[in-house]
Amino acid sequence: MKNKSILLILSFTFAISPLMAQVGSSSYKNKTISHLEMLFEEGQHYYVDIGNKAQLKRVMDAYEAALGQCNKEGILTQQEWDSLLLFVKCYKLYGNYHYLNSDEDPHSFALAEKCYKEALAFVENPEHGTLQEVNYYRFVLHEELAQLYYKQKRYAEAYAEMKVAFQYSTYLDNDGEILDFISQVSMCKARIGKFTEAIEDINMVIDQYPDKKEEPYAEALRKKAKIIMLQQENDGTGMADPIDEPLKYYKKYFTLKQEDALR
Length: 263
Hints:
The chain has helices at about 5-15, 25-50, 55-75, 80-85, 85-100, 110-125, 135-150, 155-165, 175-190, 195-210, 215-235, 245-260. It is mostly helical and about 260 residues long. The model is unreliable at about 1-25 and about 240 (pLDDT under 50).
């Protein structure tokens, strides 16, 4: 990782003069912006959909190089940098990398938390409140922190971050993202002993999925099984037989995953 170099790039970027920003045509500027957005989306893909740390690192290096070239050529003004949330996206990618790397290096937990909080400080600054997508990234970054805390078994803190993220959940793009978020909240609730609410939430999620063969539906079944097991481990008040009830959902989960893999 090149945290120091990216910080230098960003600090120099914020010192770009208005005259330097006039360098290059508008078409070249648009091409540069499109390239940065493409790299960010590719990085998101390797993080969210695949969890591929090596490929995410490759994309991050390319993203950092593109930012450096953008700075060197004075393509964007300070206002444009802010409006594109390049600072936020940069630190989010770094946070995502450290999140994945925490499987191998426990020190990466603190680095991921620092990156997410750096990005949050920007989006929660009142001066940036009118920027496009700023509320969406408020949701995303609080959710990322919640996932990080959950992974560390800091469940109360994870739930607190989820409650903050919920305030901005109306900025999500589609129903699938909302259902996935609610299922994550249900897991947090179960971890802190709110079993009745957790079961109600995950049942609602399961009922709402229109396609009962897709992976998100299967994942919701797996989470319900886990919630039931947590409840039984905690106070023995599970809804059915200690084995049969969660086993039913796990079997359905594995069947759907197998069918998805074959497709």
